[in-house]
Design a protein that fits this description.
With 388 residues, the protein is an alpha+beta fold. The protein is 29% helix and 27% strand. It has helices at 5-13, 58-65, 144-152, 156-161, 181-206, 228-232, 234-242, 268-272, 326-331, 335-347, 365-375, 381-386; strands at residues 16-17, 23-24, 40-45, 55-56, 72-91, 97-115, 118-133, 167-171, 215-219, 247-251, 278-279, 283-287, 296-302, 316-322. Strands 1, 2, 3, 5, 6, 7, 8, 9, 10, 12, 13 and 14 form a twelve-stranded mixed sheet that branches. Strands 4-11 form a two-stranded antiparallel ribbon. β12 (283-287) and β13 (296-302) form a beta hairpin.
């Protein structure tokens, strides 16, 4: 093409492109245990029967497996592939130049639905975005980054392959944190992906597809941060929470240190020793960055025998549900419902071991299929990087 993306970008933002080495920033295919601080405050039990020991679900799982009805109907996965595609220099105070990374990402958010025991695609959203240092807009012009994205989309090569940049996301360059610029740009793209996930859930709710007979299982945590607009409008904020009445978050990775015993002390061994096809009691927690406005119920289920896994936490699923109503906050979720939902999740575990995916022990099969569906929509790494 006449002008590569970086040539146009440097011209429009007054920067200097170095045509630097391009490489991926993702490590999502590796299983990991988050031993860090999740900033979670555990408050109390969050189910109607205050269990103190593990709850066996084996018999209930077998009983439900013989029935045709199914509460888990929709499965959602958000994914992103992020790359450092160049270095770009901008002049700062005293006329000196500072070099910043240019981050590019593909975002995919997909939902699949179970119909007659088959999982089929329901919805899909894809975006291609860039993340630049905020200093690229030296004059603070409103709408500058969106206008620059439109300029990029005029490139002949982008038109030829039918691709557009949705927007340019500025990352902060102020030295307020120790985060590397690459991590700041990646975080911007991650936040954008989460917004697309929230939109997809809202679409399903608006279309009347989620109810007590049709739950959505979302891959990962439900710790979605409401926007300032959500918080400013009480009606809108309650609507945000109501969207998650029939949504479960299922996390393959979690911080075992945040599991507390009945005395309120960290007890990761309580999760590690969880017997096969059992769940933990349900606990209520709030996170520091969300505050008391949103409370969560969380519990853990063992899908795989420890004999088949490599670490004590492989084969364990962390399940989250937002406590939407005041009754839920006061009394917790009905324990019988927790048992039924947990038993259904056990029955969704992967039927085979996927050697290409080291996270197989923590996967539930429909989510795995949804993740595969989303990733199949990506441009190949070679084609994507060639654009720059």
């Amino acid at each position: 093409m006449a002008d590569k993306i970086m040539t146009v970008l440097a011209k429009e933002t007054g920067g200097k492109s170095y045509k630097a080495h391009k490489y991926g920033l993702d490590h999502t295919e590796r299983p990991f245990i988050d031993y860090g601080d999740d900033s979670i405050i555990w408050k109390k039990t969050a189910e109607t029967t205050p269990h103190r020991k593990y709850v066996s679900l084996e018999n209930l799982s077998k009983k439900l497996a013989n029935r045709d009805e199914q509460l888990l109907t929709y499965f959602l996965d958000g994914s992103r592939r992020v790359f450092k595609v160049d270095d770009i220099a901008y002049k700062v105070s005293n006329g000196r130049s500072v070099i910043y990374p240019v981050i590019a990402g593909q975002i995919g958010v997909g939902c699949c639905r179970r119909v007659n025991k088959k999982v089929i695609p329901e919805k899909f959203k894809r975006e291609i975005v860039l993340s630049l240092p905020d200093i690229a807009d030296a004059d603070g012009i409103p709408g500058f980054f969106n206008a620059t994205a439109k300029k990029l989309n005029e490139c002949a090569e982008l038109k030829r392959v039918g691709i557009e940049f949705s927007t340019i996301l500025p990352y902060k360059t102020a030295k307020s944190t120790d985060k590397k610029f690459e991590d700041r740009g990646t975080a911007c793209i991650q936040d954008r992906m989460i917004e697309r996930e929230k939109e997809l859930v809202a679409d399903l709710v608006r279309e009347g597809k989620l109810n007590q007979d049709n739950y959505l299982v979302k891959d990962g945590s439900l710790e979605y941060k409401p926007t300032k607009e959500d918080k400013a409008d009480k009606r809108k904020y309650q609507m945000f929470k109501n969207n998650y009445s029939w949504v479960l978050g299922a996390s393959k990775n979690f911080n075992p240190e945040t599991c507390l015993d009945i005395n309120g002390k960290p007890n990761p061994g309580f999760i590690a020793d969880l017997p096969l096809y059992h769940r933990t009691p349900v606990a209520c927690f709030v996170s520091d960055f969300l505050g008391d406005d949103i409370q969560f119920a969380v519990w853990y289920i063992r899908l795989r025998d420890k004999k088949q896994t490599r670490t004590p936490f492989d084969g364990i699923l962390k399940v989250e549900k937002i406590l939407v109503t005041q009754e839920d906050v006061d009394n917790g979720i009905d324990s019988d419902l927790v048992d039924v939902l947990s038993a259904y999740l056990i029955n969704e575990r992967n039927p085979v071991c996927y050697g290409s995916d080291l996270r197989w022990a923590n996967h539930i099969y429909p989510v795995y299929l949804t993740e595969s569906f989303v990733k199949s929509k990506y441009l190949s790494t070679e084609s994507f990087l060639h654009l720059f």
